[in-house]
Design a protein that fits this description.
Vimentin-type intermediate filament-associated coiled-coil protein; 0% strand; 75 residues; single chain; mainly alpha
């Protein structure tokens, strides 16, 4: 009987472990919705040089394969 109930017990343990951080995240998202978007006149103050280049994923159009990533550190 214990072996049958172990998966449910593990799931309940995971749910109770993740509940407080999830509740905090949901509260932060509700606060962000309550604040709403920035007015159009204030958005330029966040990025004085304007927006950067558009972001894209690592798949080039038409090729269908992943491009190699480059990782490193500077000393």
């Amino acid at each position: 009987m214990i072996q049958q109930l172990q998966p449910q017990a593990d799931l309940l343990r995971d749910i109770t472990r993740w509940r407080p951080p999830l509740a905090a995240l949901l509260a932060a998202l509700e606060e962000a919705e309550r604040l709403g978007p920035l007015p159009a006149s204030d958005q330029g103050q966040l990025l004085p040089d304007g927006p950067g280049p558009p972001l894209g994923n690592s798949i080039e159009e038409g090729q269908g394969h992943l491009q190699p990533g480059v990782f490193g550190t500077t000393v």
